[in-house]
């Protein structure tokens, strides 16, 4: 297991975890959120290719409709 931070909370994930796996684990669709890793916005096309590393800081921002 490796340690990362997700929205300020420490998480342990399997090595080779990518963003798509992380979103799935949090029951989030990639269509309703944006992801930043180490202060860099990640394109949705990279969610499968980008493998998280120990110490990475991930911010997940969920889009919400409303007025």
Radius of gyration: 12 Å
CATH architecture: Roll
Helix content: 10-25%
The CATH class turns out to be Alpha Beta
Largest sheet: 5 strands, mixed
Summarize model confidence as the mean pLDDT.
95
Strand content: 35-45%
Low-confidence stretches: none
- Major sheet strand order: 2-1-5-3-4
Please give the domain count.
1
Distance between the termini: 41 Å
Oligomeric composition of the shown chains = single chain
CATH fold-type name? Ubiquitin-like (UB roll)
Which of globular, elongated, flat, extended, rod-shaped describes the shape?
Answer: globular
Give, in order, the helices and strands: EEHEEE
Structural class assignment? mainly beta
Short key terms for the protein model shown above:
67 residues; mainly beta; Ubiquitin-like (UB roll); 5-stranded mixed sheet; 1 helix; 5 strands
Q: What can you see in these coordinates?
A:
The protein is mostly beta strands and 67 residues long. The chain has one domain (2-62): Beta-grasp domain (Ubiquitin-like (UB roll)), CATH 3.10.20.30. It has one helix and five strands; from the N terminus they run E-E-H-E-E-E. It has one helix spanning 19-25, and strands at 2-6, 9-13, 33-37, 40-42, 57-62. The protein has a five-stranded mixed β-sheet, with no helix packed on it. A hairpin with a 2-residue loop joins strand 3 and strand 4. It is globular. It starts with a strand and ends in a 5-residue tail after the last strand. The mean pLDDT is 95.
């Amino acid at each position: 297991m490796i340690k990362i931070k997700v929205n300020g909370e420490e998480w342990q994930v399997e090595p080779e975890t990518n963003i798509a796996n992380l979103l799935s684990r949090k029951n989030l669709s990639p269509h309703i959120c944006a992801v930043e890793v180490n202060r860099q916005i990640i394109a949705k096309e990279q969610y499968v290719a980008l493998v998280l590393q120990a110490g990475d800081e991930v911010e997940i921002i969920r889009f919400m409709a409303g007025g």
